[in-house]
Give the backbone structure.
Amino acid sequence: MRGLPRVTLAALTALGIGSWLGLGQPDQTRLKELVFKARDAVNEATSPTATPTANGDPVMDFAPSVAPETLDTARPWPRLNPEASAKRAWLLAEGPYHPPGDGERLVTLTFDDGPFPETTPSVLRLLARYNIHATFFVLGRYLDGDDDRSKATRDVLRQIVSSGHLVGNHTHDHHLLTQLGHGETLAQIEEGAASITKVIGKEPIVFRPPYGQVDVFTMQVLKEKQLELVLWNIEAEDMKNDDPVAMFQSIRGQLEYSGGGIVLLHDIRPSTVVMLGKLLEWMSLRKFDPAHKEKPGFRVVDLPAYIRATAESPQPFSDRIELERKRSAQHQAGITRRPRR
Ligand SMILES: [Zn+2]
């Protein structure tokens, strides 16, 4: 497993992390170096054999998140990013700031590119087992049509909603918006929303652009439509990787390094379903204990709870580069003190 950090690094390199925020090339390179160096060190320092095994179903010990009927109305979400700025959205994905000595690490799960009748129901069963409410950024094109598959896909979307999960717009056809004309971009967002609304009876209020890419025009559209731009800070390139163990190890290392975050997964891949089972089990065995606040532990929450917590305790940084520099320095200092196994 000594080779794992290299796998993780290769995956991260391919993520296109440098495309964050439309940074200039020198900034992108510097940020990549910081992230990779620190995550490499964390992966090396954590035990690769720490994966727990359980006989039968793991204990359902996550606290219930917000009830579905309260998501939109009971406690309105704070608008953290009314300008729909991509730079700000990347920082917000990092979640709330926790001062030293506060071990609570918030995690929220997001699933893109579905629904898929073959795999999404398995994801829903796993989430239900752990009482977790996630967010599904779905594609409108799968919901249209009168063929059997489209009908089954619409049923799955209704199941997502009835299970208490949030549905977001991931456009109609998954085109790279920055390569479209204004009219086409607008149509992708509006048609995606229309297809979703036709099935679930309400308009999505969160939006994730394909490939995480937005341009000035897209930001303007999101701002006018008051859509929350949701990006992420944790992923394992599960659209390209098929090894659940390697993907789990990668996500585990990133969660430990970043102290939680918005996890991007795709509910259309069997290997992701397998990996998700491992991830949920691992996080449940490392859940945050309020009686021992200083001890690092995870609390998996839905997206509204994640946004509210971020509003209450924002990151004291202007952007993700600044955060990354501080975090990297802290981890390097901590890891040099940590005894090697
Ligand atoms: Zn996508």
Remarks:
- DSSP finds eleven helices and eight strands in the chain.
- Residues 1-25, 46-74 have pLDDT under 50 and may be disordered.
- Strands lie at 104-112, 135-138, 166-169, 206-207, 228-229, 234-235, 261-266, 297-300.
- Residues 112-113, 170, 174, 210 surround zinc ion (CB under 6 Å).
